[in-house]
Amino acid sequence: MEVTFNRETESEMYGKTLWENPNFPYVFRKNIVEYDMQSASLSVSRRFHLLPDEKLDQFERMPKEKRTREVGLIQRDDKVFSNNMINGVLQTRKEFMMKNHIDESNVITLHSDAIIFIQSKPVVDHIDNVPFICKENWSSYIRYGRVEMFYGDGIITYKGMPTQMMQQHTLGICTFLLNVFEKIEEYDESIFPYLRKTQKMYLQDRLPEYWYIPFGTTGPYKNENMKLFSYIAKIAAKEVK
Description:
alpha+beta; six-stranded antiparallel β-sheet; Palm domain of DNA polymerase; 241 residues; four-stranded antiparallel β-sheet
């Protein structure tokens, strides 16, 4: 079965596998949730009859990692199936959003079969037998370049940051950002002397070496992170009143 999804006539938000809302570069003190399409490759294939039922039954009995690999191989070798799968995911995601009145006024970001938005009421979590599950829940968010940071219960979840790069920043900038989220959420005005002190020590080369590795980018050593400090200071000025 061919699945059509006219991206030219749809909202930009609906027609992209990855979409970031320019109106929400950061969000604080909100109920931010991530709803994911459960077993998207199977549920979308069943919904739109993209593969024979016996093949899908076989995949369903496989461990998730093996199933993902097998479906990925089909997508690689069968461009029609791959295109139908992408369109099927987009169509199902759109229907979930419309059914629950989720639009650009509360969507933060879209990641293929995942929708991250500000939730204000319960949602209908099935679209034509395709289940959506609430995978994560956070209270604040900052996007910096391609890096997305989600904060909740004293933990930051990073998206768009390679694991190795994140590990390099664990003791330095990641700890700094954790303090930033906590202070902004609490309207803690001590964030301003904290930011000034951190930036001063940074400029005077008084911090450990790992602080000077560019955060979330491969930009120039040391100077690149001054952009991050400036961005955080602007957010704090607007959010801590």
